[in-house]
Write a structure and sequence with these properties.
Layout lengths: L4 H29 L1 H14 L3 H14 L4 H13 L3 H14 L4 H20 L15
Length: 138
Amino acid sequence: MSVDPLYFLIIGLGLVAIVAELRVMRLRKKAENNPVDHFRAQCQRLLETNKLDELAAFARAQIRQRPNQVTAHWYLARTLYLQQKWAEALAAFNEVARLDPSWIERGVTPHVREIEAKLQQKAMPPAPDAADNPRTLH
């Protein structure tokens, strides 16, 4: 009795697919068991759907449970930034920097610079409009 080589190829591909699916399942379970990854994924979903009030509340709840979790403080800061609550966002970004200085360069400084620029613009009085204040030559 002769067995077609195609049979072995099909069996081999089936085994490869099963092994791949088992790896994916293991990675999903690992992510579910890691609370920081789960928190980050939930925050991303809220951010991507623009549910900023919900995201701020979620981040604050996480901070109450884990006050030193940098990721929670960063998501709160980012949310406050998107809500244009400049003073609160600045304080939150400063807390991120205090908790973990490695976040300063990429996660904090760009936002802080933008906030400071916006606050500076807000503090500067607007230039008078030429139509409202005509110039005379006398």
